[in-house]
Design a protein that fits this description.
By secondary structure, this protein is an alpha/beta fold. The protein is globular. The strands form two sheets. A seven-stranded mixed sheet has the order 1-7-6-5-4-2-3, with helices on both faces. Strands 8-10-9 form a three-stranded antiparallel sheet. The chain has 15 helices and ten strands. Helix 6 (167-174) links the parallel strand 2 and strand 3 (178-182). It has helices at residues 44-57, 78-84, 87-90, 102-119, 131-149, 167-174, 192-198, 221-230, 251-254, 263-266, 315-351, 372-378, 382-390, 419-438, 457-462; strands spanning 123-125, 157-161, 178-182, 203-208, 234-239, 258-261, 281-283, 367-370, 398-399, 408-411. It folds into two domains: 79-324, Aspartate Aminotransferase, domain 2; 329-455, Aspartate Aminotransferase, domain 1, CATH 3.90.1150. The relative contact order is 0.13. Helix 2 (78-84) runs antiparallel to helix 11 (315-351), helix 4 runs parallel beside helix 11 (315-351) and helix 5 (131-149) crosses helix 6 (167-174).
């Protein structure tokens, strides 16, 4: 497929601009370009065809199975988009007075109340723009809490399990903390002895996902949060995997003090493509005074960490989430989690004879396979199998994560997939396992049916070509 620049012919175009009805004000000389801007010149039909062809190459949950582990790439009902497109929501301005924005304020208020109920938190802010932004905000709450108590200078460490999402240690470091890695035990949960040894007077808090990145619910969760609290730290819940436990277990009941949510993972709003996202942060009552200024107009207290995002956060994403919450209700959210767990266990059981499970227990919403032995026996890696799935109209699962599992493939089928889809995915994986043992070299040459074949991924990462240069 040619670039739009390669289709350009001087003098062609499709722009029909209205006549200027305001005085023309030329740019100051110092702000003008030294050379003309090189934009493609194509007729409207070529422009339309170009973007249509690009759209055909995009793969998403509306295209087919998309089992990215730890990302909850579920189908987003179209009613969410219809509600977010209502003129009363799209036409509002954040600087309007309170009297003219009562409907939008009610959306924020009701969403906050519902998310507090789902998580067993007492207060919530909708400002953070994404999950990692929510992590950072939650850590700032923890930091403000310790500073107010007078021990902020002493509590310099955040404990993070070795199976954590990569954003956890990054967010902790950004907040000025030293990261202490806590190893996993033989069953994939937190090693309690290691946690006890790590927790102490310098512990500010623990960042934990439960169920964790291996798809396992830690049976020692109450003991984990108790250990952290006895050390004087706070427990932070990474809500990335909340899709597995809605209506079954709540972070606040597990002993967590702060939680962030990924509306794009759990509550059916757009995911990927650079955003917009939303990562609301909830907390227990004793931390509420440190939350960012309320989106609902209440006076910001002197203890608040201040604004973390302009205005109210990404409002239309919240509209979509509220639509999802109202459509499903409490029983529907619980059923979604139950089906997510059922689908994951069904797919895991279909695959485990051909691909060993890293930690073979009943999983929650996701599971991790290890292809370490397959690679030793056949030379076929997790990457090869993932590339093979591209030729079978299926998006690969997450590769090589979590880092504690070698040659990892991480599946999260979500609740929105049918049994027929899961069977087709399992059949494809089993077929690839058979090919690996009979003709492993064939999988080093896939994919062959995609727009481009096997790429030099290291070269692309280290020396990317991000712009077109005129010859």
């Amino acid at each position: 497929m040619k670039l739009i620049f390669e289709k350009s012919v001087c003098g062609r175009g499709s722009a029909l601009l209205p006549q200027n009805d305001v005085p023309e004000t030329p740019l100051p000389e110092g702000l003008r370009r030294g050379e003309p801007l090189e934009l493609p010149e194509v007729p409207e039909v070529e422009l339309d065809r170009h973007y249509t062809q690009l759209a055909h190459q995009v793969y998403g949950v509306s295209s087919g199975f998309y089992p990215l582990g730890s990302c909850t790439m579920k189908y987003n009902p179209r009613i969410n988009e219809e509600m977010a497109a209502l003129p009363g929501f799209t036409g509002v301005h954040p600087l309007q007075d309170a009297e003219s924005t009562q409907g939008c304020r009610e959306v924020l208020r009701r969403t906050e109340e519902m998310l507090c109920e789902v998580t067993a938190m007492d207060a919530m802010t909708m400002q953070p723009a994404a999950g990692a932004h929510g992590e950072f905000t939650g850590l700032l709450l923890i930091k403000a809490y310790h500073a107010a108590r007078g021990d902020g200078a002493l509590r310099t460490k955040i404990l993070v399990p070795d199976s954590a999402h990569g954003t956890n240690p990054a967010s902790a470091a950004m907040a000025g903390y030293q990261v202490v890695s806590v190893p996993s035990n033989a069953r994939g949960g937190v090693d309690l002895d290691a946690l006890r040894a790590a927790a102490g007077a310098d512990t500010a808090g623990l960042m934990l996902t439960n169920p964790n990145t291996l798809g396992l619910f830690d049976p020692n969760i109450l003991e984990i949060t108790r250990i952290v609290h006895e050390a004087g730290g706070l427990a932070y819940y990474d809500g990335a995997n909340l899709n597995a436990v809605m209506g079954e277990a709540r972070p606040g009941d597990m002993g967590f003090d702060v939680v962030h949510l990924n509306l794009h993972k759990t509550f059916s709003t757009p995911h990927g493509g650079g955003g917009p996202g939303s990562g609301p942060v909830g907390c227990k009552a004793f931390l509420a005074a440190y939350l960012p200024a309320s989106a609902l107009g209440e006076v910001q207290g002197h203890q608040s960490i201040g604004q973390v995002r302009a205005f109210y956060g990404n409002f239309l994403v919240v509209v979509r989430a509220l639509t999802y919450l109202l459509t499903l209700g409490g029983e529907g959210l619980n059923e979604a989690s139950r089906n997510a767990v059922l689908n994951a266990n069904y797919l895991m059981h279909r695959l485990k004879e051909a691909y060993p499970v890293a930690y073979e227990h009943t999983c929650m919403h996701e599971f991790v396979l290890t292809l370490e032995e397959l690679k030793k026996e056949t030379g076929v890696s997790a990457l090869d199998v993932a590339k093979g799935l591209l030729d079978r109209d299926m998006h690969p699962p997450t590769m090589y994560f979590p880092l504690i599992v070698h040659e990892a493939l991480m599946f999260e089928p979500t609740e929105t997939e049918t049994r027929e889809t899961l069977d087709a995915a399992a059949d494809s994986m089993l077929e690839l396992a058979k090919i690996a043992r009979e003709d492993g070299d064939a999988l080093h040459r896939v994919p062959q049916r995609t727009a481009i074949g096997r790429v030099d991924e290291v070269g692309a990462a280290r020396s990317p070509v991000l712009r077109w240069n005129a010859q």
